[in-house]
Structures are given as structure tokens and as C-alpha cells.
Design brief:
Elements lengths: L4 E11 L7 E11 L3 E6 L6 H9 L6 E6 L2 E2 L12 E5 L3 E2 L21 E5 L9 H14 L3 E5 L5 H10 L2 E6 L2 E5 L2 H5 L2 H7 L1 H7 L1
Parallel strand pairs: 3-9, 3-10, 6-8, 8-9
Antiparallel strand pairs: 1-2, 1-4, 4-5, 6-7, 10-11
């Protein structure tokens, strides 16, 4: 069975410069999501969450490893069709751009007319009446249509955690470039780096 998303041996390393190859940041990820789902993502600022999203959509080039979306290597798909497989909405919901040195006619077709993986990068949850419910219904609709939805949230209020607990079926936690997969909300809360990250917000939530 082809997985919705297979991130295998993925690594992205940034260096001080082209001449100075001293690493300044490294991201490493290995995880697999078989079925349509809503996946929560958390982690401190600067930990690599947006970089991971960019690698999944093919708008950033990995140092090594690969990302398979519905069995297709996203970095081997035409740049003008990658958003038919995975699409990244960044805060203001503007789609990220794509770059490639390889011409599109030499690359593979997406084979899809509508994105299979939707990545929402810190969406703004307005607390006005009905807005949050509208957003959650939209995420559920995508999942019901057989899509994989990522919801990246930087919790700074209690209701952010409540949203993640309510809607997400599994979790990805990213810290200092280390990506870990967790099977449930309770499981990610048992992960010590996540506990440290959430701090008193977690204590208030479970009290």
C-alpha cells in the first residue's frame, strides 16, 4: 500500500557560506503516514518546522533523503505541479514558491489535480464567533475527502492546545532540527522536550 506521505532519511543542512562549510543548522526527519489524517505539529521557533514543510512541498531542496507523496518523489515532480500533491499555506495563506535548476519537461507529472497533502503553517485562529469552528470543519472536510492535513501551531494560549487535542489524530514535534512522530495527543505530552516547551501552559491545561 502506498503511504500518503513517506519522509525517508531527509536531511537539510545550512552552512555559514559556500566556502565555509561549517554547519549552522541541521534538520533530520524520518516518518511515514499511511492514511488520511489531521496531524498536529509543534516546536519552538527556529526549530525547523517551516523548513520541514518546505521540504515536503518541494520548495526547498534537501541535502539528502527524499519525500514521497502518494509514492511520488516531490523533488522529481514538475515545479508547476508540485502544489497538486502538497501545498503549504504560510500564516497569511499565501502559497510558497518553487525553484528548480532542472527544466520541467525533464521532470515527472504530479498525476493529481488537487493537493493530497495540505500544510497549514501557524494559521491565525480568530476567536470571533464561529470562526474557529469554521476552520476546524474545513480541516475535517479535507480529511474526509481523503487528504492529509498538517496543522502547525505555536501554542501561546490554552485554547490552542484544546484545538490540537480536539482535532489532531497524531503529532509531529520538532526541536533543534530533530523531528519525532507521536501517535496521540497524550503521547506527545509525555515527551520531555514537549513538556519543557509547553511549560506552564501544559500545567494549566491539565489542571
Amino acid at each position: 500500500m502506498v503511504a500518503m506521505l513517506d519522509v525517508s532519511g531527509l536531511q537539510k543542512t545550512y552552512f555559514k557560506s559556500r566556502l565555509n562549510r561549517t554547519p549552522t543548522f541541521e534538520l533530520a526527519a524520518n516518518f511515514r503516514i499511511e492514511q488520511p489524517a489531521i496531524v498536529g505539529m509543534m516546536g519552538p521557533n527556529g526549530s525547523g518546522k517551516t523548513t520541514l514543510f518546505e521540504l515536503i512541498t518541494g520548495s526547498n531542496t534537501p541535502t539528502s533523503g527524499q519525500v514521497l507523496v502518494q509514492g511520488k518523489n516531490i523533488h522529481g515532480v514538475r515545479t508547476d505541479q508540485r502544489d497538486r500533491l502538497a501545498i503549504h499555506y504560510h500564516q497569511s495563506y499565501q502559497v510558497r514558491s518553487f525553484r528548480s535548476l532542472k527544466p520541467n519537461f525533464m521532470m515527472e507529472s504530479a498525476g493529481s489535480d488537487y493537493p493530497m497533502v495540505h500544510l497549514f503553517d501557524e494559521p491565525q485562529f480568530n476567536t470571533q464567533d464561529g470562526y474557529i469552528g469554521f476552520m476546524l470543519d474545513f480541516f475535517r472536510k479535507l480529511r474526509a475527502e481523503g487528504r492529509l492535513v498538517f496543522l502547525c501551531v505555536h501554542p501561546n494560549e490554552r485554547f490552542h492546545l484544546e484545538i490540537l487535542q480536539e482535532i489532531c489524530e497524531q503529532f509531529i514535534f520538532v526541536q533543534k532540527g530533530v523531528v519525532t512522530q507521536h501517535e496521540s495527543y497524550d503521547a506527545v505530552l509525555e515527551y520531555p522536550p514537549a513538556q519543557d516547551y509547553l511549560g506552564t501552559l501544559l500545567t494549566e491545561h491539565v489542571a
